[in-house]
Design a protein that fits this description.
Shape: globular
CATH architecture of the largest domain: 3-Layer(bba) Sandwich
Keywords: FAD, Flavoprotein, NAD, Oxidoreductase, Transit peptide
Largest sheet: 5 strands, parallel
Number of strands: 26
Organism: Rubrobacter xylanophilus (strain DSM 9941 / JCM 11954 / NBRC 16129 / PRD-1)
Catalytic activity: a quinone + NADH + H(+) = a quinol + NAD(+)
Structural class: alpha/beta
Bound molecules: flavin-adenine dinucleotide
GO molecular function: NADH dehydrogenase (quinone) (non-electrogenic) activity
CATH class of the largest domain: Alpha Beta
Pfam families: NDH2_C (PF22366), Pyr_redox_2 (PF07992)
Length: 450
């Protein structure tokens, strides 16, 4: 019982004593419950734990927080998608904040309100925008219609379902099997593209191969297409080489200096004339700030996001702040550069913005903190038994690096349930090959009804 109580701490306010958000003297509204928004809310709640004048409300499109670094593992089914979706409500209510699932549409700074879908208004004294990013297709013809992207848990499940679908289809084909059916093309050689290509390899060779004895898994071709001369350009050259060798051993064909010019239903056309015959294209080559920022009425630049100063405050707005992938944050370490859009930056920004918002609420503007991004390193997993890591200048790769990758992210998962379930998924998939089923929904059974 004591352990159960320890693992399930009571919320800061009992339901009958919690004031309504609107009734707090100082209201902080946070839009977005991802790495940046969630961290800002949690930090602020910790800072005002002993005060009753500051109310925090988080509005987010989903009622869960997607732990992105583990999402590629959903493709191979090493981790169940539900375990990567960490419940937002419980964590925030326990911390003392309020939560509403709402899709924000615009800000009205003149009246200090945010308007969500359904014309519902939410007031604020201080507002933090953290709505994240979305894929950037750079206007390349056919990508949006024919490629799968990797910007959500549903996307990862869709990629897994696509692989299974092709295996089911091919196992029914009597004659020649079109090459396009069993060819998978991942466009984008950054960390996400490399991880997705490796997870497709794991799914095919480790999980599906023995369930489909009439399909030779070596007929499956996986391509990784990158426009730059190198994959993983942000990594140290030795680690890059280790990753290339691993991809080579997995028979993933890496095409660098290769630009995808068009994607059709059954091929990828490459600049310079070549083409890859494939009905399965996955786009991971670019991200941009969430398009909703264009409607918020705040200063932004389309490529990098809402314009903020070095304190994370939106240009020209004393009470509005922006953080995470949706914000163009000046990198004080390098003149003219902006902070890269990644999870560790988003978490650091969330902590700084919480302290700055409180400083303004308390009239301590002279204590505002400049945001300085401190990169801690990079971890890239290529299958469950291999990773390439750079942590505080130390570089290592291989099986131990894969163990480190898993431990590092297990510690960072915020929900205790997610931690326990993800750890269980990893332990089970180490001993038992994950059973991979394709849940297709009722629409596929429509013909069976009388
Ligand atoms: C597949 C994948 C793997 C990644 N792996 C890594 C990694 O290993 N390491 C790393 O450092 N980074 C990684 N990243 C990048 C990292 O996840 C992002 O940089 C980070 O999530 C940014 O945090 P954020 O809070 O700005 O956005 P998010 O975490 O995406 O959160 C945005 C939030 O805003 C909400 N929202 C969006 N629109 C609205 C709206 N209109 N109204 C209300 N709410 C809204 C969303 O529901 C969400 O809660 C990965 C990204 C992807 C896609």
């Amino acid at each position: 019982m004591a352990l159960r109580r320890f693992l399930n701490p009571p919320p800061r306010y009992a339901p009958w004593e919690k004031p309504r958000y609107r009734d707090f003297e100082k209201k902080v509204l946070i839009v977005g419950g991802g790495f940046a928004g969630y961290t800002a809310a949690k930090t602020l709640c910790e800072l005002v734990r002993d005060r009753d004048d500051v109310g925090v409300l988080v509005l987010s499109r989903e009622n869960y927080f997607t732990f992105w670094p583990i999402v590629p593992e959903v493709v191979s089914n090493d981790v169940d998608a539900h375990n990567v979706a960490q419940p937002l409500r419980r964590a925030l209510i326990t911390a003392g904040a309020s939560f509403r699932r709402a899709r924000v549409q615009r800000v009205v700074p003149e009246r200090n309100v945010v308007v969500a879908e359904g014309d519902i208004e939410f007031p604020y004294d201080q507002l933090v925008i953290a709505v994240g990013g979305q894929p950037n297709f750079f206007g390349i013809p056919g990508v949006e219609e024919h490629a799968l992207s990797m910007r959500g848990l549903e996307d990862a499940e869709q990629i897994r379902n696509r692989v299974i679908e092709r295996f089911e289809e091919v196992s029914l084909i009597r004659g020649e099997i079109p090459e396009s059916k069993l060819t998978f093309v991942v466009i984008g050689g950054g960390a996400t593209g490399v991880e997705v290509a490796s997870q497709i390899h794991t799914l095919v060779h480790e999980h599906l191969a023995s369930d489909y004895p009439n399909i030779d898994p070596n007929r499956v071709r996986i391509y990784l297409v990158e426009a730059l001369p190198e994959i993983l350009p942000e990594l140290d050259p030795a680690l890059r080489k280790a990753a290339r060798n691993r991809l080579y051993r997995q028979r993933i064909e890496v095409l660098t200096n290769t630009l995808a010019e068009e994607v059709t239903a059954d091929c990828v056309r490459l600049k310079g004339g070549g083409e890859i015959s494939s009905e399965n294209v996955i786009w991971t080559a670019g991200n941009r700030p969430n398009a909703v920022i264009q409607r918020l009425g705040l200063p932004y630049d389309e490529k990098n996001g809402i314009r903020v100063d070095e304190y994370l405050r939106v240009e020209g707005h004393r009470d509005i702040w922006a953080i995470g992938d949706c914000a163009a944050i000046p990198d004080v370490r390098q003149e003219g550069k902006i902070v890269p859009p990644n999870a560790q930056a988003a978490v650091q920004e969330g902590k700084t913005v919480a302290r700055n918002v409180l400083a303004v609420l308390d009239g301590r503007e002279d204590e505002l903190e400049r945001f300085e991004y401190k990169p801690l390193g990079q971890l890239v997993e290529l299958g469950s038994d291999f990773a390439v890591n750079e942590v505080m200048g130390v570089r290592f790769s291989g099986f131990l690096a894969a163990l480190f990758w898993r431990l590092a992210y297990l510690v960072r998962l915020t929900s205790p349930q997610s931690k326990a379930r993800v750890a269980a998924d990893w332990i089970v998939s180490f001993f038992l090959r994950p059973a991979v089923t394709q849940v297709r929904g009722a629409r596929n059974n429509a013909d069976d009804r009388t």
